[in-house]
Amino acid sequence: MPTVASRLLPRRGVWPNASGGDGALLRRTLTRLDRRGEGDGGRDSIPRPRGESPRARHAGRTRRARAAHRTPPPSEYHSRGRGSLSALRRRADPGTPMKSKFHGRLAPSLSASLAAATFVGTFLLSGLLVVLDYHRQKAAAREEVYTDAANLAGNLRYPVQMLLVRQDHGMLRSVLESAAGDRRVKQALLIDRRQRILAAHRSDVVGREVQAVLPEALPLIQRALKEKRPLYQPLASDSLYLALMPISTTAEQYFQTEAAAVLLLAFDTTFLDARLKTQLSLSLLTHALNGTIFALLIFLILEQVVATPIRRLAKALRQVQGGDLRARVRIPRVIELGEVAHAFNELVLRLRAYYEELQRQHRELEALHHTAERMKEQYRQLVELAQEGILIADANELIRYVNPAFARSLGYAEEELIGRSILTLIPEEDRPRVTAETEKRRRGESSRYEVRMRTKEGELRDFLIAAAPLWDETGTFAGALAVTVDITELRRKEEALRRSEERYSDLYNNAPDGYHTLAPDGTFLEINETELRWLGYRREEVIGRLTFGDVLDERSRRIFEHALASLKEEGTVRELELEMVRRDGTHFAVRVNMTVEGDEQGALRYRATVRDVTEQKSLEKQLMHAQKLESIGALAGGIAHDFNNLLTGMLGFTELALRELGPQDPRRELLQNVLTLGQRGARLVRQLLTFSRRIEVHRTTLDVREFLKEMVGLLQRVLPETIAVRLDVSEPIGSLEADPVGLQQVLMNLAVNARDAMPDGGTLTISCAPVTLAKPGVPPLPPDAPPGAYVRLSVADTGIGMTPEVQARIFEPFFTTKEVGKGSGLGLSVVYGIVRAHGGFITVESAPGLGSRFDLYLPLTERAAIPRGGGSTTPLIRGADELILLADDEPVLLDLEEKVLRAHGYRVLKARDGQEALRLYEDHQREIAAIVLDALMPGVTGIEAARRIRERDARARILLVTGYNPEESGLGGIRVENVHILQKPYTPRQLLETIGHLLGKSQQAPLPA
Question: What are the structural domains, with CATH classification, of the chain?
């Protein structure tokens, strides 16, 4: 017949492991109904003992339920009196007859059992006393022997010691024989260190080794010799007792580690056995008689006190077993038996109440049965309608039940999943995880985990699973109940969110600008890696520890505090210029934009964007400085151009006047002074043109190492002996395209400045090294420095150094820190102009008291250096009545050129502008041998006139005169054959040499102006 629990199971699978109060009540109800069978109220109403485990209780209830088919129907409990008690007895043991098997001849009576137990116990106690008495007497006899052995050995010690010292072996033997006179002494021996017998009570053993006579005593002898103290110990056979007394001479007691000999007395203990046997017999007889009397007394007492009340109780039990509930037991005087009798009487009184309670419980179980049926249907509907997937798998991971939601999530029908292994839905790489989770269920653990499952179409979807173990009726693992949630879309959204956060984090931390978030008190709440790198801090050193004011200088901190007030009111601050301080104390400029925002709790936070504008500020300063120098250069170039025109006339006419005066003419000295002052003015103007880069640079290929060696030799002759000049060139450098005269002037000017900075002497170091710029504007060079190969030529001194304010103005013309009359202020300006004219750059490092170092970066060339040799002056060659066309807007210069040329054999045509020069050229084209034009005349310039003349006659010989660098004045594009350029101011000699070279009258190039 099916049980109640089996009838209440769902139609598919196993009943779910319901939880909560109703579920627990339902499980208890079904179990109790199974035990009752067809309405049996049985033993389940008996209270369950405390401390019993749930699994053990479950197993006990199951065993009782299996015996339910032997339980009589409830109608038997409805009867009164004997019938109901008989039914109870048959239920307890249905295979046993009513009469107990212990009331026949099969078992002894209680009196006989008490008598047997009393006499057996008494005799066992008597035997124990006999054994104890025997051992006590034996120990006393042995103690007597041991005492005699110790006394005898002690008495013999000193006589034997004296005889051993005197080597009187005869007396030794006599002493030992007298000791052996005691019949208990079996051996009396004197043994030396070598375990040889020196003397004995028998002469046949003297001189033999102990090993041959008494081998068992050898370890004890060795021990006594070594420890030099008496030893008393029985042998292992327990037949001899040894007394060993070490014997030492007086000297040996102090200087030897062992005794000289040992006295051995062996006592025989076998004679004690006969005496002990006699004593044992007498003791046994005495204790047997006393035990018999004692046992009889004990039996009589137990019969009256124990046996009689128990027989009365047994009689009453038989009455109750027969159905007589009026049976009572008289309470005996013994406390324990009185409690048993009282309990029996109480049990009989409560038996009727017990039957009535069973009837009431039966009615309750019937009501619970109907409740369970109703709840079972409710649970089934709940599982079927649940949106989450629910499945039950057995211990072998086979699916036994799935709800519609789980089947839909995988695209299967419910019938397709029943009986299928759960592992077939799991991809291969995730199966170990599921197997491990199943092992947790076997251990009774519940857990949550994520796993992927494959749908019927083959798609892998993510599931969140909550699983709990299931147990069968015997408490054995039966499988698992799992609730599943499809989280595939959630995981996709989480992945998209994670990628978005990673992109944001990358942008946030790798942005070129700094970003941070501040608390209302200015404490950093967030900061990106860019700003951390700027400051030189680690994130944990900033977040929650530093305020924004802590990383600002004093001025910027005040500006920031003032900006916070307006930030709270207006909500934003734009283009805040501040100075931040790095961890190492260095400063850098930043531009900060800040806004106010609220967090989730509504608290205000300040979010800021920080841009490092240090390089921008530096570029702005460099640009301003360059523009300032450019403006000054333009002004100086313009002034120099005008002065060149004046100086050209002054020097030319003075030179002509000197040629017309005799050597002794007193006016000659005055004109010579004028010429000298004019030449000094020309040099000054040339320096201005050099600074403004409006002077032509005559470049040649120089070997840097050789050039510096020559220059160091020159400086050593020029500078005072208190200044040591040192050259440091460690490796081949290469070649430069440079003007050697200009570079000499650069190094000479720097050396002169170094000399003035070291009034007490010092060291001037000139060094160079090749450098390569990988990209434009590598610091410390300006942004317009192009990449490529350079030579860095350094000039360092150990002088007084410069302040930052002085460094900012050292390249300005006429700026000087020297006293009036000791410097023009053009030395470093000329250096700057020459270096820039060579396409190079110059930087300076200096500090007060630490000297100065100027670094010149000049571009290298791959051309081979041209050996430098001495020049020669070109002899003046007079003209052969050639016609020269002159054009200049300065009448004085025009007259000067005319006088010089006519004085040296040339004919002259004069034009006051370019237009007139073109007209005269058209009229006298065939006669004109050469044309001298001022490059920058008003109207048609000399450059334009030269181009037009070249268009008409490509072989025309033209000389352009200018006060600027040809490249600056636009003359670089017309540097072709038969066209020469002469820079102002020039001398009559330079003019004649250039025209002679132009007309082919000289093989050498004209001297530079």
Answer: 4-81+348-380 (no CATH), 132-276 (3.30.450.20), 387-471+478-490 (3.30.450.20), 511-612 (3.30.450.20), 696-861 (3.30.565.10), 883-998 (3.40.50.2300)
